[in-house]
Amino acid sequence: MYFDDAEPLEEYRMALNREEREQFLAEPHVAAFAVDAGAGRAPLTVPIWYQYESDGTVWIMTALNSRKNELIQAAGRFSLMIDRLEPTIRYVSVEGPVIATEPSTIDHLREMSARYLPAEKVEGYVEFASKNHGEQVLVRMRPERWLSSDLGSV
Questions:
Q1: Of 15, 18, 60, nearest in space to 35 by CA
Q2: Which of 22, 96, 124, 139 shows a CA-CA span of 20 to 30 A to 4?
Q3: Can you give the pLDDT at residue 35?
Q4: Neighbours of 27 (CB within 10 A)
Q5: Could you report the average pLDDT of every consecutive run of 10 residues in the chain (154 residues)?
Q6: Where are the domains of the chain?
Q7: pLDDT at 14
Q8: CA distance 94 to 21
Q9: CATH 3.30.300.180 corresponds to the domain 18-152
């Protein structure tokens, strides 16, 4: 029922097939990002914009000197959980290793902004973010583990 190493939890859940998972990740949902925060701490978990590429790579942008980036580099991996409530309750969770960290560019910022914002707001946001968010990095992750479900209209 589930992909890879996950066990089915309840019979009414229907795992998504590969095409459904990829299509869902290609949609502009806000993800819940999580990374190990070290011994004695719960994972750092925050909402984040992400981009999904056709080769299966997921990437995020974050400030070079942020706690988030420090924890990503220390852990070497992170997870994203993406969900929606309508028209049915559906989620996809991915977890995997960081495969690259690189300086982000204005083009990355523009691409990410265009994914989430109305067209008329993109350039204004890009200008604001490039002036106010500091140096950014792009972190690429290759999902190794997937967990997905469509709960229907329960």
A1: 60
A2: 139
A3: 98
A4: 11
A5: 45 78 94 96 96 94 96 97 91 96 97 97 97 96 94 71
A6: 18-152
A7: 84
A8: 10
A9: no
